[in-house]
From TrEMBL:
Native species: Luteimonas kalidii
InterPro entries in the cross-refs: DNA_primase_Znf_CHC2, Znf_CHC2
Protein name as catalogued: CHC2 zinc finger domain-containing protein
Residues passing through the membrane, by range: none
Record-annotated Zinc finger CHC2-type domain positions: 40-96
SUPFAM superfamilies found in the cross-reference section: Zinc beta-ribbon
Amino acid sequence: MSGRQRRRLPETWRGRLPDAATFYRQHVDGLCRPNGEGWAKGKCPFHDDSNASLSVHIASARGGWKCFAGCGQGDMVSFRMRRTGEDFRDAAWALIEWKP
């Protein structure tokens, strides 16, 4: 178990998440400009996606996401967990320490 796994997340960890737009632009291919509500579409990295079936809420601090092809939905932490296989704590730490 690494030292990071044993450390407790700070109470303010959600406020330390990276900017959703910057994060998702690095992880979602073909991300378009957001609509008026802050949702942008792109190709889902969780399946072979020839159409833009993933929507991400880049105007939200939590960075919500939803795949309309059935891969799931969640926030930026669950997106990181799904991409990397990390548990919640490791994914949250990686995000608050993430540098673009």
